Amino acid sequence: MAQNSKKLSIPAATVPRLSQYLRKLQEVQSRGVTTISSRQLADEVGTNPAQIRKDLSYFGEFGIRGVGYDVDRLIAELKKCLGLNRSWNVIIIGSGKLGTALALYRGFQRQGFNLIGMFDADSNVIGKDRGAGAVLPITDLEKFLTGNEVHIAIVTTPSAAAQTVIDRVVAAGVPSVLNFAPIRATSSEPVILRQVDLSTELMTLSFYLDK
Amino acid sequence: MAQNSKKLSIPAATVPRLSQYLRKLQEVQSRGVTTISSRQLADEVGTNPAQIRKDLSYFGEFGIRGVGYDVDRLIAELKKCLGLNRSWNVIIIGSGKLGTALALYRGFQRQGFNLIGMFDADSNVIGKDRGAGAVLPITDLEKFLTGNEVHIAIVTTPSAAAQTVIDRVVAAGVPSVLNFAPIRATSSEPVILRQVDLSTELMTLSFYLDK
DNA sequence: GTGTGTGAAAGTATTCACAGCC
DNA sequence: GGCTGTGAATACTTTCACACAC
To answer: Which CATH number describes the domain made up of B5-81?
Structure first.
């Protein structure tokens, strides 16, 4: 997984939690709260205060002893930690129901993710607007990637197409992929790859449901 | 998290991996492979052989030394481990693009998950078929849950509605929830709760992309 | 007094390495 | 010889507990 030296030392488990802290802080900020303690935040997100303090300590000292954290300040720091002080260009490959649902998700742009293109193999949908401008033919993928810097490719194709599509975006230099297709994609190239997988989620529930 | 005594000792990280092993095994089975070693399976799913052997060892001895694993046998054992030798009743709450995408996912029924109902608050979609028969009004949720044993509630509502909906299904006795709404849901009741969160996934990519 | 920041301790998870069986 | 199953070793993560700052 490509990452810089500073970030090599951050526990992998910490990173997704930072985004949860950020979301909760934005929520309490909108309710007018200006200061929050690690205990209050922990109660909100369902963890323990030491976890939060330890997670934050990897990045710096953001709190005031005896007081807690300034909400505005902590939001700004977390955004910096997460690389959200800039924008990232995103494409979605697969303009079916799932791809369209993701394209229409409004929180997307709000955090600096710019959806700049959407691709599909089905000639019936090419040119239609599925939430990200006209859907482009998948055959134009490499041409598009040459002319546009894409940071994240979200894959929502059928599973049969997903691995090939991922190989193509990685070969074209896209540095990260978020795969929703129900395959466990792999890549020999050093790409940042994350998988979201309904089938695994359901089976995990099944495991814990089974008595 | 509700689970029986046998399962208390299984590492939480093992469970999702079992489902990945199962999927990959089903794939190689369909290609006619009858025997597989932990090394071959590890190469396929991108992990290491010891991890697979250790994961399996929590449940029993399924392999043959010097040979490997019989694919058919291991698939059967994994299904048993994961509680997939029975069917589970599922409802989807929220019949937007995402809920519809999930309802149309075909791998769903194939692994024993029966989608028996779909709910929405919008009177314009009630009665329409979004992949799971006629969409029911959310006001009928409790009545439905009284008359039908539901094991898993998948929540794809807007975030403003999600926590309330989750509280309602949990109060009505649904033992597990898979939440796709961009909130970190919590529950005081002992419910099995899993979250799938686009925003967290994107921010995690952002973290590793940021140099 | 209150709550952060952080070493140290405890708890989990992964990987190693080899005895034992095919 | 080859590959599993597993205790031991290593690595990682969370939690504790307290010095220190406000």
So the answer is: 1.10.10.10
